[in-house]
Amino acid sequence: MIGDSVSGSQSDRARIFSLVVLAVLGLLMVRLVQLQIVNSSEYTGESRDNSMREIRVLPARGTILDRQGTVLVDNQPAFSVRVTPRYFEEESLPLLAELLEVPEAVLAERVQEASKYSSYVPSIVMNGLPFDRLSRLTERLDDLPGVDYEATQKRRYPSPVRASHVLGYVREIAGDDLANGKADGYRPGDLIGQRGIERIYESELRGNLGSDFRLVNVHGQDVSPFRNGVEDVNPVKGRDLVLTIDADLQALAESLFVGKRGAAVALDPNTGEILSLVSKPDFDLDLFTRQISGQEWTGLNASVEKPLFNRATQSVQMPGSTWKPLIAMIALEEGVITPNETVHCPGYHPMGRGRFFRCMHVHGNIAVVEAVQESCNTFFFEMMRRLDVNAFARHARSMGFGEVIDTDLTEQATGLIPDSSYYNRAHGRWTVGYQMNLGVGQGELSVTPLQLARYTAAVATEGKVVTPHLIAASVNPETGTLQAPDVPPPTPLAIRPEFVGLAKEAMRRVMVAGTGRGVQIPGIPSGGKTGTAQNERGRDDSVFIMFAPFDNPQIAVAVSVENAGFGGSAAAPIASLMAEQYLTGQVTRPDIVRWMLQTKSDPMIDKTNGE
Amino acid sequence: MRRWYQTLDYVTIFLWLTLVVCGLVAIYSTTHGPAAEFLPTSVRQNFYRQSMWLGICSVGIVIALLLPVRFFQNTAYLFYAGSILLLIVALVFGKEINGAKSWLSFGPMSLQVSELAKVGTILGVSQLVASRRGTQSDLRFALTMIVMVLVPAALIVLQNDAGTALVFIGLIPVLLFWSGVPYLVLMLLMAPAVAGYLSVVSMPWAIGFSVLFGLLLWWQTRDRKMGLLGLAAAGGTVAAVSLALLKVLQPHQVARIVSFTDPSAQEFRHGVGFHLVQSLAAIGSGGLTGKGFMQGTQTQGRYVPEQSTDFVFSVIGEEFGFIGAGLVLVLFAFLLVRLIRLGGQMKHPFGMMVAAGAVGVYLIHIIINVGMATAVLPVIGIPLPFISYGGSALLAHTAILAVAISLHMRRDDLSIYGFYT
């Protein structure tokens, strides 16, 4: 062949050329190994950060049930409007405000708050949008970049029970809650429990947030599930809570308080379960499921009747004569009197020279049980004269007075149980006369209805001090199993059972032949004690404590009605009807019910307006 | 006499078709994935348009196979002249797309004449080599060839399409090498390119390379002057590039050039480095096996700009992983080596030059395109042959291939006159 020598060199070049081709492609292949095998995880992170958006899936909030399983609080569908500040245009603010029917300034503030949280994350600017407004909004969404809505849930209160102070409500998270809650996934516009059960059991009720991972494109548009949703996390529904509240009892008690201010607490004396907790006036929880208006909120806050104030746990008042069984027990335990020893009552206690320490009647020589039954003031002035005030304080505190109960009730008042150091602090020089008023539940002494109920339960059970609590069980949303709360066991009183038994017997006599005889439960023996507590603002408060049945107490009640006068007049009928309702499932005394519906507290004297 | 179907190289056609189909798969993923609804209608039709181009190209291959070798040799200069004419027409009357005024409309079709000019240039240079007479001096021959390549390259630069022009310039050493220019000259020609690249990436490496290159030439030629010449060629480039980067070029131009060395740096990430950051994220996150067809988050989220054209490799790398991207490189390797072999089998300068020109064009495209997608080179917008979306490029690259296999099929018809060395 002619070209042999030439093509020989040419085939060398072909070989070199091929080698160059392979070398170059080989180098690119090495680069691929570096990118896709060696450093792949780094780039995987980069690409995830790019394109993955996490969308929270809010779990359904746990429902709240009464002890029989009646639903007190559950959820209903609602809509929330969200704004993603990065894409939101300020010019569309007036249109959005018009569609949502909220003031532009309010909306602007909420958008501002949302952008402070994150400009790329959608934040709720309005919760609980009514359906008609939602449909008007959806028609105009194209004109509102960065605005969308999500289906959420809001609270519903399907039972006739209000229990406003027990249940509490949810509101949008704000302030410190938002600052502290960020780590738990709270965002502006999220709902959080604000009072009562909703607040204390927020973490149980809320459940666990779920996550939907979405693929968004370079323009921020949502494209599809990220990796077909394999990484999505399903939300876990909040725990349902079974309360110790008895819905029927609660509803009855609330209805009996019509026209009255005051509180009632009913306990299971053996366990401390709160069967009913009423504080009146109360407020409509349903208000908070809507965007509550400023006016409504101010009204609730500023009302002289203080509807937001939980009188059952926060109001402090003198216990009046309901205090006498307690003093009787302490006096017996401290040995300042024996069961059969009598004290002479001339209608007053001689210390006050007939002026300061008066009794309602001339009781003559009277022993301890009769003194409780007849509510003899002189006897109990004398007991406190004989008692060391510090011994009194120690016993009172052991029964739960003067302290906040460590339980699932927020918003408790401490109350006041004076001791010698208190008097030293308050008065400097003081005499035994200062402490004698304590014997009849007056003076520098204050207790809450909850504390009274607890003490009543201790007498009823002859010495068991229980921890009042609201939760009977919480329901595991995955397994459906019930979990009981961790309630401390009852502590025994430092008073001998026979002395507690005497106080209990005295309370039985009150119901049979004393001030409580008008409100005996038909067919069920019980124990009780009326009280009339001085109220610096008008008529006396009516107070009553009660337990029943006498031999195997199932319920202990404390009722206080503000400015309603003598203890037997308003508080006792309510307590008696409550006990009857709880024990028999019905009330059989329509005349008493009718009477109660007509009894009213005196109007509140607004001190700011003068009297 | 062998029958035509016995001499046709089916393997090359098979490799070509496989690569085009790989491209179609990637393009389909960018237009029919879950994000399709966000795409403009024109983009959504990319897949169908590219399929149509595949049909046109297939017809083109058949026509090329029907034509005799004489036709290509006789019309080679005509094609070259036509290419130059089209480039001038485009420069004057053309349509500007993506900043490059290199498009001509023919009814509903738009053609990028700078792509088509590759075909005419390779045919023209091949005919030049084939018609070389022994009396011609090496230098004059080489200069003629260089000028023949530089004329269309200059016109394309004027059209503001520096990337495509770079391919022409890159073709020069390939064609020189294949037409028999001494290795030494070739090395001297190549050294500045390597030195220039290294001075962007790493100055110590660039200086080291220059010194080593001088020493290598000295050792090869035993001539101190040659060593100094090599050092001057490489070192001079290093100095020139450094001067350009430090003094001559505007900061944004410098950023464009150097950003690939660290695209995710704060100053580049959201600007000139954005393409590279996203492309690296796409390819790197593909891992060994990829995220799956139409499952690439970068691709479906359209994070990589120009993902169906210049950055189509990132789609393959992300959705099919190292296996898919590596397969594409392997297919290219087979195709290119195969073409070199076909060129050798033709034993005629015209056929050999066409085959070498094809390999050169493809190789330069692959280096620049894949190098860019994997951030070893700056962003230079040229397509990946057969794979990127774009009718003109597919047509031009297929046409060169078609001529090469047509000549190879009819290689017995080529004049037996070999090289005039």
Overall description:
Chain A is 37% helix and 18% strand. Chain A is of the alpha+beta class. Chain A has two domains: 53-83 and 98-243, Penicillin-binding protein 2a (Domain 2), CATH 3.90.1310.10; 247-282 and 309-603, DD-peptidase/beta-lactamase superfamily (Beta-lactamase), CATH 3.40.710. In chain A, the strands form six sheets. In chain A, strands 2, 3, 4, 5, 10, 16 and 17 form a seven-stranded mixed β-sheet that branches. Chain A has a five-stranded antiparallel β-sheet with strand order 12-11-21-20-19. Chain A has a three-stranded antiparallel β-sheet with strand order 1-8-9. The radius of gyration of chain A is 35 Å and the shape is elongated. The model of chain A is unreliable at 1-8 (pLDDT under 50). Chain B is mainly alpha-helical and 421 residues long. Chain B has a domain at 182-248. Chain B contains 17 helices and three strands. The model of chain B has no long low-confidence stretch (mean pLDDT 89). Classes of the chains: A alpha+beta (611), B mainly alpha (421). The interface between A and B is large, with 45 and 57 residues.
Summarize the structure.
The complex is a heterodimer of chains A (611) and B (421). Chain A is an alpha+beta fold.
Largest interface: A-B, 45 and 57 residues
CATH homology-level superfamily of the largest domain in chain A: DD-peptidase/beta-lactamase superfamily
Strand content of chain A: 15-25%
**What is the straight-line distance between the termini of chain A?**
133 Å
Overall body shape of chain B: globular
Number of helices of chain A: 22
Oligomer: heterodimer
Counting helices, strands and paired strands, the structural category of chain B is mainly alpha
**Major beta-sheet overview of chain A:** 7 strands, mixed
Low-confidence stretches of chain A: 1-8
Strand order of the largest sheet of chain B: 1-2-3
What is the percentage of strand-forming residues of chain B?
Answer: under 5%
Total DSSP E strands of chain A: 21
Order of helices and strands of chain B: HHHHHEEEHHHHHHHHHHHH
Give the overall shape of chain A. elongated
- Which fold does the CATH topology of the largest domain in chain A refer to? Beta-lactamase
- Any guess at the CATH architecture of the largest domain in chain A? 3-Layer(aba) Sandwich
Q: What is the strand tally of chain B?
A: 3
